[in-house]
Specification:
With 172 residues, the protein is mainly β. The protein contains one helix and ten strands; from the N terminus they run H-E-E-E-E-E-E-E-E-E-E. The chain has one domain (2-162). Strand 9 (137-142) and strand 10 form a beta hairpin.
């Protein structure tokens, strides 16, 4: 199982052209759903939104993702405005719009769903800042085998930045 996860992580790393810090597999056996993973403070960029934890529950085709984001929010002028689930091919699967800044709530967790993915479908969960774009600290994996922190090139599937749904403003 560890070898299989290692090669899966290497394939994702190669596909994303992002074999940087944090992209190595953890080597831990996956736990049963809901699966929870986290990333250390040392791995979080202070200059962009970072996905720092993820838990998933539900049933195939209708999962709920609970995503924890750390971001350098300063108010509506700079804040994490969404997190999203994308396929390893860059296709947008789900986007959770965040309607306000989280200056005094860092990191923060928001749920989203239903998310229509298969239990064995590899996906990437990443966060976005309204002024800074995508962060490079993400979670990759699938519901069946689990998710792990990874690092990807922030320009991967960058065209999704203009895909609907998009935020309609910031409340505070």
């Amino acid at each position: 199982m560890i070898i299989t996860r290692y090669f899966a992580a290497v394939l994702i790393c190669i596909a994303l052209n992002a074999c940087g810090a944090g992209s190595s597999p953890s080597g831990n056996e996956p736990s049963s759903a809901p699966f929870v993973s986290s990333v250390t403070d040392a791995e979080i960029s202070r200059h962009s939104a970072a996905v720092t934890a993820l838990s998933v529950d539900g049933t195939q085709g209708s999962y709920t993702f609970r995503v924890t984001v750390s971001s350098p929010d300063t108010g509506c002028n700079q804040y994490a405005d969404w997190w999203e689930v994308i396929g390893i091919d860059g296709a947008l699967i789900y986007r959770r719009i965040l309607t306000h800044s989280h200056v005094d709530e860092q990191p923060f967790t928001r749920s989203g769903g239903p998310i229509n993915v298969a239990a064995d479908q590899d996906v990437i969960v990443r966060a976005h800042m309204n002024t800074l774009g995508y962060g490079n600290v993400v979670f990759t994996g699938n519901v069946m085998q689990g998710f792990q922190p990874s690092s990807i090139n922030t320009s991967f599937a960058q065209t999704q930045e203009f895909a609907e749904p998009l935020p309609q403003g910031c409340a505070f």
